[in-house]
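Hi V.,

You were right to ask for the full record rather than a summary. Here it is.
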Amino acid sequence: MSDVHPHLRALADGEIDLDTFASLLQRDGTPLIERGASGRAHVTFVHVQQEPLDGVTLVEQVSWLPPEQRQLVKIPGTPVWHLRWDLPADLRFSYHVDLRPGGPVGDPTNAHPPSRDSRLRRPVAVLPEAERLPWLDRALAPPPVGILHARTFTSAILGNERPVWVSTPAGWSPDGGPYPVAVVLDGEEGHLAPSVRDQLLAASEIPALVVVLVDEIGLRNQEMTANPDFSRALATELLPWLRKDFALTAHPAETILSGSSFGGLCAGWTALHHPETFGCALMQSPSCWWHPSTATPVRTGEPASVPTLIDAFRQNPPAPIRIYQECGNLENGPPPARVWQVFGNRWLHDVLDLKGYDARYREFAGGHDAAWWRGTWAEGIRWLLAP
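Predicted structure:
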């Protein structure tokens, strides 16, 4: 076992027992990371289980390898399964393992404990040269400083209702304001956006910002995919309803719509069609590949459709909005995308540039992953609220 992490080699050679090995995992945190050649890192994923298993598969969104190349191998005579990869040293990504039998499980010795935010409850690997996310690191520790107000939003346009949570910053007053506002799609009570906002506010990086978290109530595939009714409900029902109680601004330049994945698609599409309400769109890994036809198989010789969000910005006159857009440089999918996510995002940015938009685009070293979004959200907010 020459090409394995020293801890695993020592266990296989009988130099340490299982208890000592478990203590080393607890001390060092998993995955086990070693620096490799220039710009590379050796990453060892470990799963320990006494009960019999038929197999253990690593699940992540950076390698795009088939399942047979993501199988962990068992050390004979032990309950330890492992997989060692050589990866770019600047990656950050979430992962889990899929057990047969048993299904998906986390990593109890992961170096990054799970968050109250449901999208950050999977283990996270941060390699040695990964971009630091200081706003995220600070937000993970304390609870939000601001007050979280739970409300129920009833929409006549959509014919449904959903929870929303309004996070007011420290020092907020109903008689103050008007306050800038960020509406966050795929919102939930434990979302980290309010905590990230608190860190930015404490550092005097942004003005006092109200954050509105909008629950997707299981309808994101229908409502966030360029649905004009959902966009109209956000612009003409949700914000006017909240302005009364929370002293929110009516100024579009200080009104941000934020989302990731389908939420990012919705943020851009809604701002384009309702610039009188949302003057800023914060799009994190927006689904620039999406088009209604992607739900059906591609026939031989069928011309490819221009993805919906790209086509909307191509066909419509420029709107008076600012756009922060980002994507992982390893977002090579997802099925049934006819345009890979990262290529679609570059295509959209080129369209925005040619149309003359005030837009910023960046790529991070990773995949389609909240392990990046929750930290880089701070950079989008800072840029959009800059004078």
